[in-house]
Design brief:
Layout: E1 3-11, E2 22-31, E3 34-42, H1 51-57, H2 61-65, H3 70-81, E4 85-88, H4 91-104, E5 114-115, H5 116-123, H6 132-139, H7 150-172, H8 179-187, H9 193-203
Parallel strand pairs: 1-4, 4-5
Antiparallel strand pairs: 1-2, 2-3
């Protein structure tokens, strides 16, 4: 049974490495249509959090001062994710922090990320916006808490992933939406989803 690990970071900036470090991570495990487990921790980035980011996330220097160091939290998060399939909303952002911090620990980043932002652009092309908060509102997904906090955003992304799977299954009469099919959808042209899914299903008939 496939398990997805939905990952969300909060950070001190946009560029991982010396210029920016994580301040919080959450991982939500999704299996068989359910959110089955969670990991969340603040972490001490070893550098000040810019004021505008403190305002955005609500995470202050005081909050992370006594938190475990990044290395400790990332080792725990990596073990929690294990071999599960990682997912993030706008995965290009979260993936680069995941890969950078695990490389510093000498750990493999594991499997390729699925991106719920890219998936939503193909499955819900007429959405007013593909930002996470807008999709939650437009699709009537459960409210999970304050945006730009890792656990709330990871849970919202997990519910979005389930909605994407449900919609694909209904639209294309598919009994099981696999990770391979999600990868096919993610890579499909935005206006060529039906053709891409049809070709995929024909190959796997």
């Amino acid at each position: 049974m496939t398990t997805y690990a939905v990952i969300d970071f909060e950070t001190t900036g946009a560029s991982p490495g010396l210029n920016a470090r994580p301040t919080e991570i959450a991982v939500v495990l999704v299996r068989d249509g359910q959110l089955v487990d969670r990991y969340q921790s603040l972490m001490n980035p070893g550098q000040p959090i810019p004021w505008q980011i403190q305002q955005l996330t609500g995470i202050t220097d005081a909050m992370v001062r006594q938190a475990p160091p990044v290395e400790t939290v990332m080792a725990e998060a990596s073990t929690f994710v294990g071999s599960h399939i990682p997912v993030a909303h706008n995965a290009a952002f979260d993936r680069k922090f995941w890969e950078c911090e695990l490389a510093a620990l000498g750990r493999s980043p594991g499997r390729a990320f699925l991106c719920s932002l890219m998936l939503s652009r193909r499955v819900f092309p007429t959405a007013t916006s593909h930002k996470l908060g807008s999709l939650v509102t437009d699709l009537g997904l459960p409210a999970t808490g304050r945006y730009h906090r890792a656990l709330a955003d990871a849970e919202a992304t997990a519910y979005l992933l389930l909605k994407i799977q449900e919609t694909i299954a209904e639209r294309f009469s598919v009994s099981k939406v696999t990770a391979d099919l999600l990868t096919e959808v993610q890579q499909a042209p935005v206006k060529g989803l039906a053709q891409s899914v049809s070709r995929y299903l024909a190959r796997h008939a």
